[in-house]
Specification:
The chain has 6 helices and 5 strands; from the N terminus they run H-E-H-H-E-H-E-H-E-E-H. It is an alpha/beta fold and 140 residues long. It is globular and about 40 Å long.
Length: 140
């Protein structure tokens, strides 16, 4: 348990030092709760998917908005997609924008993880990157 908290702490520190870019498809930013719930699988995801899971100081709404804006390919969330989309709409509204949700927005749940009905998974526009897709198939 102590190791999980240390790992999460290092991930959060790394998140603060690393900016999100669309070119960095090997880094997946997630909400603090999603990263905390994914902690048991982080080593597997990094080793087999060549993807680093990093906690973001932004909330779920901003993370989903970043996916929709093409700033990042994937975001890890810990709530139903409908709630995440509502949070993204609120984040867009705060920026003075209206948000249109494309049909290609997808949620890829990690079936083994769900707390009180809140699913944990990854949001993408279309299929996830190949490395993450391999890991998701293994975690189902």
């Amino acid at each position: 348990m102590k190791r999980a908290f240390l790992t999460t702490g290092f991930i959060i520190l790394a998140a603060l030092a690393m900016p999100a870019t669309a070119d960095d498809a090997r880094t997946v930013y997630g909400s603090a709760s999603a990263v905390r719930m994914l902690t048991p699988y982080i080593n597997l995801i990094q080793a087999r998917g060549d993807v680093a899971i990093v906690a973001s100081p932004s909330g779920t709404g901003q993370l989903v908005l970043d996916v929709l804006d093409g700033k990042t390919a994937v975001a890890a969330i810990a709530m139903p997609l409908a709630h995440a989309v509502a949070a993204a709409r609120a984040a867009a509204w705060e920026d003075g924008r209206m948000l249109n949700i494309p049909e290609s927005l997808q949620f890829h749940p990690v079936a083994a993880l769900s707390v009180d009905g809140a699913p944990v998974g990854f949001v993408t526009l279309g299929a996830p990157p190949a490395g993450l897709q391999k890991v998701l198939a293994e975690l189902r």
